[in-house]
Amino acid sequence: MKVSVIGTGYVGLVTGVCLAEVGNNVTCLDIDEEKINMLQLGKSPIYESGIEEMMEKNLHENRLSFTTSYSTACERADVIILAVGTPSNPNGSANLLYLQKAAENIGKHLIKDGTIIVTKSTVPVGTNNKVKQWIQQSLTEPIFFEVASNPEFLREGSAIQDTFEADRIVIGTESRYGTHVLKELYSPFQIPTLQTSLESAEMIKYASNAFLATKISFINEIANLCEKLDADIEDVAKGMGMDQRIGPQFLKAGIGYGGSCFPKDTNALVQIAGDIEHRFELLESVIRVNSSQQIKLIGKALDHFGSLKGKKAAILGLAFKPNTDDIRESAAIEVIKTLLHYGATVNAYDPVAIPNMKRLYPESAEIQYTSTAYEAIANADMIFILTDWEEIKELNLPTIAELEKKPVLFDGRNCFDLRTIQKSGLTYHSIGRQILT
Ligand code: NAD
User: Fold this and answer.
1) Whose CA is nearest to atom 3 of ligand 1?
2) What EC number(s) are associated with this protein in UniProt (predicted)?
3) pLDDT digits over 130-141, tens only?
4) Could you tell me the distance, in angstroms and rounded to a whole number, from the CA of residue 152 to the centre of ligand 1?
5) Atom 4 (ligand 1): residue with closest C-alpha?
6) CA 410: distance to chain centroid?
7) N or C, fewer C-beta in 10 Å, the chain?
């Protein structure tokens, strides 16, 4: 099939490359010329394992191309996939401006009957009907097209694997024709498909993310109770997860969720409910719990030191989770902001996310970036582990314990076994477990 993907971010690029990999002829479009120039040279603007190799292969085999031209992307496409960002408005609702602009541009350049325009971006219920109107109003001649909703569930860091091994593909369509085209598009992936209305497909995405966020805030609240009641959250979560009705996933206590999806999508769902005069109190609590959880370690540091003024903090991990360079809504942003507020200075390290964080916090007297974790730790009074990168989980604790200042370790991801910590002699605060001194 001839497929065009609009937006070459984390979702659009991975989708485009994977669809080319299974034999489609894919054109990826972005308005960001710099990104397109890089992509044309086979360089990925995002860090995602395996993406450059797969891109190079499909560029070489002429199944993949990159453009900034809507006429090139639209003129012959059987399917056009919208994967532009839908960030939060200041009130938490989803900002649909990028989507509207993209839809209007598609309308202006559509010349072939029968194209299916698929929204993969996460959008409020009812948006696909708006997409249809935006395209319709921009057409330069009467052309038959259909819209479809096809929310994306990939996770950054394992996006290619998630695309090939997804649990389900959800397709909300207007007609049997749309269902047929999309089922054919996805048939090489051999993944169970659920066909629904446009509205149900749109809701499935928000409901899924809100539910996962709820699981995280729930286990974090249990962790907060464990700390006061001498229970151990790791054992509690394990015991809960062994119940098949609950399941072990998303029961990892820590400093909360971040990233470009959960915070934005939970806020948007609260707004979607508000628009129909329904107060989604459960989700409001989930969001509140997460906000306080993100800076939980600062409270522990204040309790430990009394004051953080003049203290040096090593921040290990800036990305919102391991294996990505994405720092959107990362706990590290809140932790750094709060540490600086209390007069501490920061040495920050992350294997790949430093360039992104530097755009937000340029190097200064208060914040320095280091090229290894050990450099960040060298003269620190306290260490904050914020992302559970494999290399951070493998830190040599005895080496840290031998440092002159013997920094206090605040672990926001429960990276270490308590027995291992005990042997190291470090002072250790984690989430939902006893303090070791
Ligand atoms: P992103 O910010 O990484 O990429 C969006 C891209 O769209 C950018 O490259 C931008 O330049 C481009 N763009 C903006 N306006 C455009 C236009 N008019 N025409 C062409 N290109 C345009 O975003 P993302 O993380 O890939 O997310 C995209 C959508 O997918 C969002 O709705 C998000 O909620 C959803 N989603 C994201 C993830 C994820 O893990 N990142 C997972 C599932 C769903």
Assistant:
1) 9
2) 1.1.1.22
3) 999 999 999 999
4) 11
5) 9
6) 24
7) C
Distance 220 CA to ligand 1 centre (A): 29
ipTM exceeds 0.95, yes or no: yes
Ligand 1 binding site (Cβ under 6 Å of any ligand atom): 6-12, 29-32, 35, 83-86, 98, 101-102, 121-122, 152, 154, 156, 260-261
Helix, strand, or coil (residue 14): helix
Strands (E), 62-208: 64-67, 79-82, 115-119, 145-149, 169-173, 193-196
pTM greater than the 0.90 cutoff = yes
Q: Which residues pair with 316 in a beta bridge?
A: 349, 385
* Strand-strand pairing, 193-196 and 145-149: unpaired
Find how far residue 130's CA is from the centre of its chain: 26
Which position has the token pair 């979560």? 237
Residue from 4, 47, 152 to probe ligand 1 pocket by mutation (most atoms less than 8 Å from CB): 152
Region for 354 from its dihedrals, namely left if φ exceeds 0, alpha if ψ lies in -120 to 50, beta otherwise: alpha
Q: Identify which of 218, 207, 384 has the alpha carbon closest to the alpha carbon of residue 289.
A: 218
CA distance 90 to 113: 39
pLDDT at 239: 98
Question: Could you tell me the distance, in angstroms and rounded to a whole number, from the CA of residue 206 to the centre of ligand 1?
Answer: 16
Residue owning tokens 């708006």: 130
Residue closest via CA to ligand 1's atom 28 equals 85
* Residue among 114, 91, 116, 94 at smallest CA distance from 4: 116
Q: How many residues are present in the chain?
A: 437
- Percentage of the chain lying above the pLDDT 90 cut: 99
DSSP 283-314: HHHHHHHHHHHHTHHHHHHHHHHS--TT-EEE
Ligand 1 pocket, mutate which of 8, 11, 160 (most atoms under 8 A from CB): 11
Radius of gyration of the chain (CA): 23
Q: Is 415 a catalytic residue?
A: no
**Catalytic, out of 18, 74, 226, 261:** 261
* CB-CB contact of 173 with 179 (8 Å): yes
